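The authors assume throughout that readers already know how a fold can be written as discrete tokens. Each protein is reduced to its one-letter sequence and a matching series of backbone shape codes. I therefore recommend that a typical entry be quoted early in the introduction. For illustration, here is how one protein appears when written out as sequence plus structure tokens:
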Amino acid sequence: MTATASDSNRLSIIYDRECPFCAAFVKLYALRKNIGGIELIDARTRPDLVRALRAQGMEINEGMAVIWQRHYYHGANAMHLLSILGADRGLLGRLNKFLFRNRNAAEVIYPVLATGRRVALSLLGRKMIPHQ
């Protein structure tokens, strides 16, 4: 699968824009990044990319995906990478570093966040990203 970002230093985050938690996180992250370009991709508008991610074993309904330096990261691994690359200024930056900088902690915490996403979407009457 080829990366959507042509520049190997560009960071692409594939997320669910209809999830209020996901959308808020990526927007704040984009404002506080420490790296070059960043591309935020709403998975609901890119079924081709979602299919390609799923073919690689990355279920977008179970976690966001990140493409950086032509490598793909998913779920807890994506959050771990973002915690390393992100700025540690402000409450969100410090919290992100605290929760996800340790890979083992990220593996424990991320499933809880994914469950919270499913609950939030259900309460808001929104559907999961469909299989097409």
Residues 1-5 have pLDDT under 50 and may be disordered. DSSP finds five helices and four strands in the chain.
